[in-house]
Amino acid sequence: MIVHATVQYQAIRENVYSAFYRLNDHQSQMKSYVYDVIRAALPGLTLDQAFESKDDIASSVKTHLEEVMSTYGYTILQALVTEMTPDPKVRDAMNEINSSKRLKEAAYQRAEGEKIVKVKIAEAAAEAMYLSGVGVSRQRKAIMDGFRYVNISNHFIEHKKLM
Questions:
Q1: Do 3 and 81 contact (CB within 8 A), yes or no?
Q2: Is 75 helix (H, G, I), strand (E, B) or coil?
Q3: 31 — phi, psi (to 5°)?
Q4: Is the pLDDT of residue 63 over 60?
Q5: Which of 47, 79, 132, 151 has an alpha carbon within 20 to 30 A of 65's alpha carbon?
Q6: 34 near 76, Cβ under 8 Å?
Q7: Whole-angstrom Cα distance, residue 80 to residue 145?
Q8: How far apart are CA 112 and CA 129, in angstroms?
Q9: What is the pLDDT of residues 23-60, one digit of tens each?
Q10: How many Å apart are CA 146 and CA 134, to the nearest integer?
């Protein structure tokens, strides 16, 4: 993982001599301490934890640098972890995982849509069969009513003949 950090510092007015004459290259010295703190913090973290703990890492860098660099006449104003870039292989794997999750969700949603369509088709078919049954029932009832009418009419006609 590539980590970019920024450190804001200044010389302490009372220790200006130490700040300019005790260290030959104070920037390189600070970089070394920053790298040490970051290298110590990152191996124990997962990728997600590393991104979540950027502020904690920056705070550790600031605390450690304040301890060390104050003896050389510098005060640390701020330390920031500005960027964390994972290895390209890790980034590609993460993208693949996200892509797979999205494809899985899309397949699930598509299947849910198809299920709804099939359920609605089945409901429509059941309603059509019910209505068809109601129609057949009414048709049979009408036929029976017709037979009754015919029987009553025939009975009435025969009854008149007998009289």
A1: yes
A2: strand
A3: -60, -40
A4: yes
A5: 47
A6: no
A7: 94
A8: 26
A9: 788 888 889 989 888 888 888 888 888 888 889 999 99
A10: 18
Nearest to 30 by CA among 70, 69, 80, 81: 69
**Does residue 62 have a pLDDT over 70?**
yes
Q: Which residues contact residue 145 at a Cβ distance below 8 angstroms, ignoring those fewer than 6 apart?
A: none
**CA atoms of 81 and 97, how far apart (whole Å):** 26
Can you read off the two tokens belonging to residue 99? Answer: 């892509």
Beta strands in the chain (DSSP E): 2-11, 74-85
Question: pTM for the whole thing?
Answer: 0.55
Q: In terms of pLDDT, which residue wins out, 159 or 80?
A: 80
Please, are residues 78 and 10 in contact by the beta-carbon 8 Å criterion?
A: no
Amino acid 2: pLDDT = 84
User: Which fold would CATH assign to domain 2-86?
Assistant: Tetrahydropterin Synthase; Chain A (3.30.479)
- Residue 69: which residues within 8 A CB-CB, separation 6 or more? 9, 26, 29, 30, 33, 75, 76
> Which DSSP state fits 71?
G
In the predicted model, is pLDDT for residue 163 greater than 70?
A: no
Q: Measured between alpha carbons, how far is 5 from 32 in angstroms, rounded to an integer?
A: 12
Q: Are 33 and 64 in contact (CB under 8 A)?
A: yes
Name the 3-class secondary structure at 141. helix
